[in-house]
Structures
1.
Amino acid sequence: MQLAPLSHQRRLLKDGTGMEFADGFSALELRSVQWACARSSFDRAGVPGGLPAGQSMFINKWLTFTAAASLELVAGVVYAFSLYSPTLKENLNISQTQLQGLATAIGAGGFFAFIPGLLYDANIDAYPKLAPRLIGGTGVSAHVLGYSILWLQATERISLHYWQLIAICLLASNSIVWLDTSLLATNIRNFPFEKGTIAGILKGFLGLSASICTTIYIGLFKPDQQSFLLFLALFPAALALLSLPFVNQVPFEEQSQSPAMHKGFTPARRFLVAYAVLGSLVVWQLSSSLLRAVAPSSQGVDFGVMCVTLLILAGLLLVPYRAGGILSQPIEEKHHSPDGTPADRPGTVSAGSETGDVRPLLQDERSQSGGLTPEERSSRAAQTAADSADVKGFSRRKGGRSGGVEADGDGSQVTLPSLTLGQSLQSCNYWLLWLSLVIGMGAGGTYLSNLSQLAQSRGGTEDSQDIYISLFTTNNCLGRILAGWASERALHQYGCPRTLFLVGHLVLTSAIYACTAAAPLQALWAISLIGGLAFGASGPSWLP
């Protein structure tokens, strides 16, 4: 692809798709090049309208994002194991060691995310609508099958060997990565310039899922753990039937992303709505859990708390408000020349050229805006600085894949290598990160899975673990958000690598769980709060 000469062009960059563009463009200009290249490749393949064959109707990106956020709320139910582990131990007549084996299997299933990841990458370009739904649906199906069998075993309707229960727990917990991979990857592809925001919001809802499940258990089922286990088996399937049809990758820039079509509802404001819902849930869940920890509540109060939680969740419906309807509407890129014949929009790829002739982008931006002064261009550049940073995160690597570019503390750029799976397995850095995460997250998962037994060993009642689970999982969400924000700020402003936050996570994890050995029952709520923060902080800390 040949670029028009620009006065501020310094060098060529090449991203992971093979597209070349000039360093120094504004984010709006670079975004125009990327979407133009995608449309041009479709046009050269003979597909009218710049869309993949047979894929002319797509669901609005904001509806896809809202559906994904709601589905993430059921993707983390594996963290609610302690809520129903007492009934499993009693009805199966197993020891604490055997129960811990089931808890380990429930957590280990999430370590096989590479399988849905490989399938997603192999099919998403050819089937942008079908692939996310099939992969997510596969995860939901595995979840229903696994938890239904656990419910049948807990109610003594069937009798399985212990090793069979281990396999069922692995199946049930592996479902989370199929659903999470489908939702996260699809939305990052839909919003490539807001991938950090997308990951933070969706992972935040995933972290809150067990806390919300705990609220539902307290409000509707407590102390009937068997009925709650059946609810965990069936409710995700019902939600998936409603939400998965709205999940798809949209391979073009739609009108809701165009500044001319915002009508006051900019993407930043829509993401702010999602953050407001997430933050309100964190505050509400923490407040209600702490109140239950210091004072007993009635069944009516617990039911009211659950209703308020669901009402806050309904705020997600405001995200796609006035976003252009259910179907995605592409931005019209064709203009007409003075003689009335269609002409390619300046700054886009000419469909008739095999190499993709690109017209000047700066000229296009000025002409559409009616002429921008230097001050106006500076203001626009400031508004799109975050997007530009994402786009500039690629550099040309001769004979290989591209690597990311990160800002060092002095403002210089450092190239980050992009390795294949095989190359990563041969890297010492990979195994250091893997060992750190296994130890740190393994400690948090072990604490969470054994909260019921920890509470009882310190004089708590059999069903007192729900408060500690809610505190832990709510702060799990808060830890993900705070660690992501702090590590991003430290990296780009001071050149501080995110792995230093991983060291802090490990130190805090070691200290807090060392205190657990001698902590009284009253200290478990504080340990759960701090432990949840440390557990959630591990997620963003290992990113490059």
Note: Residues 465-494 form the longest helix (30 residues).
2.
Amino acid sequence: MSFNDNIKSANKWIQYFKDISIIHGNTGLSQFKDEILKFTDFFEVFVKNLERQLEVFKVDYKNANDQALSYKKELNLVHEELIKEKNEKLAIKETLLKKSADLERERINVKSYSSIVSSSVNKREEIVPKMDYVCIVDAVDNTIMDSKQTLSYLNSKLDYKKIIENNIKITKQIPIRNKKVLLKCPSKSDCVAVGNVINNMNCGLLAKIPVKKKPRLLILGVEKEILDQDLKEVIMAQNEQIKHCLEDSNESLEVITSKIDRVGTKMVVLNVSPRTYKLLLELGHVFL
């Protein structure tokens, strides 16, 4: 029996006893004996039902309370995470503001030089460019499907006899992507000779000597009033070591691009020759 049914039955008995109370006084109680006996049975069942329903309510309450505590714990964890994240963001913001202020002070107080950063390496280590003399052979013949076939075809055309006749040297042959083969030679003249021999054969192969790119450097903190085309002259005028280096006809320094940074100075990307590259990295800064 449900709780509501139990209450309905109890209300019926309450009404029954109210009705008895208003009956004429001459009516004997013996007439209600059977109903009163039924009430005792009902009351016993009623109490048991209430006890059972009370236990159910206790279990439901405990489960609801446990669930509420679980939700509360989760909310506390979320709240702690939000506070932690907020504090981390504040710490990052403070660090960035401090860094920005330091950079601004450095820009205002120290305008005599700009920092140099390598655009291709992370560590300012001593870099000695390795001289690799290479020639790339490409297959223009559509019947050749991959670089291994190109290498096989090249060896069939550029045989030992042709190598001896033209006095050329090849130290290594490496198949690379897109049906190409890389030939390593001990000198630049060997590369040129190999390329000329292959191209003069007109055998469906094309040899090219790749142009070696110069290393790049990033200069920070350059005053925006200094024009890109004037930067080399300004550097040479203010930095004696760099001036002596660039007086060598084999050395070069040219501006590729520049951009205004957040603190009002310029970032400049330079294309430099290997010796100048090494010197600038060793110095770490240039006077402007």
Note: The CA atoms of residues 79 and 187 lie 69 Å apart.
